[in-house]
Design a protein that fits this description.
single chain, 230 residues, Alpha-Beta Plaits, 26% strand, globular
């Protein structure tokens, strides 16, 4: 990305964060559609005109990029994964990742162990005084009215929740949740495992290191897996 001759190192660093947020958020420069970008813009202190220039450059750079979901197998079928990537050259990306996957005894392989699902992350601060059971009952009632297929409390103290729905209902469910005073923080069509697997402490340590290194590639947007959280 081009940056102005007078840009300071801090401004260049912030510009790179915006570029990556646009890239990993699906290419949109609209913060109401790209929650990755919205999170970066909130604390930003750059002049409005400079932010708009950066975002326009990002938009131009993203025009030839597409998002793909790549099934993977880690540790000789120990873990099933789906890696969401955004790239303008899928063949080159696969070639770039090939040696890394081989080192982790991983490969591009689909075991059909995931279901495509609409995922909606939200907060409901008005219910922070509720007990877990009362809050959970509220979620179930709201999920039923909003046509969500499932709901869960992520963080009771912060009011963070997760709703699931059919992919083609994502927009409608999101709008209904907003009517119920939920603050939407992220939406996506993601992948949920049909069954979870348990890893030993040693296996989990090695897998988390592999996952962390895979996410270092800027074209890797997100990783879904079937590992049960410890």
């Amino acid at each position: 990305m081009e940056t102005g001759a007078r840009d300071t190192p801090d401004e260049v660093k912030l510009a790179n964060k915006l570029r990556l947020a646009v890239h990993r958020g699906g290419g949109s420069i609209d913060p109401e559609k790209n929650y990755e970008l919205k999170a970066q813009l909130s604390p930003l202190l750059l002049p409005y005109s400079q932010v708009q220039r950066i975002l326009k450059e990002c938009e131009l750079n993203e025009r030839n990029h597409s998002t793909y979901s790549l099934p993977m197998d880690y540790g000789r079928q120990l873990v099933a994964m789906i890696c969401k990537v955004r790239t303008d050259n899928l063949s080159d990306l696969k070639l770039r990742l090939a040696n890394f996957l081989k080192q982790g005894k991983a490969r591009f392989f689909n075991r059909h162990l995931f279901t495509e699902t609409g995922l909606i992350e939200a907060t409901l601060p008005s219910k922070l005084s509720f007990s877990f059971d009362d809050f959970n009952q509220t979620l179930r009632t709201d999920a039923l009215w909003c046509k969500a297929t499932d709901s869960a409390i992520v963080d009771l103290g912060k009011g963070n929740v997760l709703f699931k729905c059919r992919p083609y209902d994502l927009r409608e469910v999101t709008e209904k949740l907003q009517q119920c005073k939920y603050k939407i923080t992220h939406t996506e069509v993601g992948h949920c495992p049909n069954k979870l697997v348990n890893l030993t402490d040693r296996q989990m340590t090695r897998y988390q290191e592999f996952r962390k290194n895979l996410l270092q590639d800027e074209d890797v947007v997100k990783i879904y897996d079937n590992v049960r959280a410890q």
